Amino acid sequence: MAHDQLAFQNPVTRFPKIEPPKQDQPEPGLDAELQPKADHGEETYRGTGRLEGRKALITGGDSGIGASVAIAFAREGADVAIAYLPAEEKDAQRIADLITKEGKKAVALPTDISSPENSRKLVDDAVSQLGGLDILVNNAGKQIAQQSIEDITDEQWDETFKTNIYAMFWITKAALKHLKPGSSIINTTSVNAYLPSPTLLDYATTKGAINNFTKGLAQQLASKGIRVNAVAPGPFWTPLQVSDGQPKDELPKFGSQTPIGRAGQPTELAPAYVFLASSESSYVIGETLSVNGGMPTP
Ligand code: NAD
Ligand code: MG
Prior knowledge:
The chain is α/β, with parallel strands linked by helices and 298 residues long. The protein has 6 helices and 7 strands; from the N terminus they run βαβαβαβαβαβαβ. The chain is globular.
C-alpha cells in the first residue's frame, strides 16, 4: 500500500520521474487511455473530515486535477457534482463510483460549458441535485499548443477563451445566488499566468485573466463571507497534455525542468483545493496558491 498524503516522505521520490511515450488522443483526452497512468489518490488520499456536509461542483471533475479534487472532497465529507464533456463519460463514471464508495452523493453532469445557456443550466442542475451549493471549483480548461500565432485560428482563440474564462464568468455568476457565507470559489489558473509558454499564447492569456478575475472578485465578495482563491499548477500529468496540449516531442521530458525534477501527479494538488475550500483558510482571500515543483512565481 502506497503512503497517504500525510505520511513523512521525500517529495522527490514520492512519485516516479515519468518519461511519457509520444502519444496522441483526440480532444478531450481520457485518463483511461493515458500512458503511464496518473495518480489521483485513489489508493492513498486520506480524508480528515474537513468538508463534512458540504456540497461541491467541480468542472472538469472527470479526469486529471478535477478528478483528484473530487476524490479528496468526497473523502473529506462532501457531496460532489462533476461536470465534463459527453465524450468523457467513461472517466466520469469511474470518479462518480469512487465518490459513491465514500457514502457521498455523486452527481454526473455531462455539459459543454462553452455556451452561456449550458453554463447556467449546469449550475441549476447541480444545485437541484445536490440540494444546494457551497463550493465551486472552476477547473475545466482547453489547451492546444501551436508553434506560432499564425497557427492559432480565430476558432481556437474563441473556444479557448469561451471554455477557460467566459464559462468561469457565466458559472460563477449563476452560482453566486446560491452561495451562503462560508462558501468558497476556487479557480484553476496556471504557472502559465506568470511564465507563458510560447506555444500556449491563447491558453496562457486566459490563465493571466483567471488570476486577475480571482483577485478582483475576491475583493467584491469578501465582506459577504464568500472567499475566492485560485490554484496555479505547474506541469501535472493529465490527459490535457496528450490531446494537443503539448508539442508531441516534448512529452518524454514533461515536468523534468522543474526544480524538483519530475512532473506532478494530480493527487499532489488535491490538498491545495481542500485547504482553500475548508474553513481553516478563513483569512485566505484573493490568493493564488502555486503548486509547481519549485518554479519561482511573483
Ligand atoms: P483534464 O483534461 O483532465 O481536465 C480538463 C477538463 O476540462 C476535461 O476533463 C473536460 O471535462 C473539461 N473541459 C474542457 N472543455 C470543456 C467544455 N467545453 N465543456 C465542459 N468541460 C470541458 O486536464 P487537467 O490538466 O486536469 O486540467 C484541469 C485544469 O488544470 C485546466 O484548467 C488546466 O488549464 C489546468 N492546468 C493544468 C496543468 C497541467 O499541467 N495539467 C497545469 C496548469 C493548469
Ligand atoms: Mg477529462
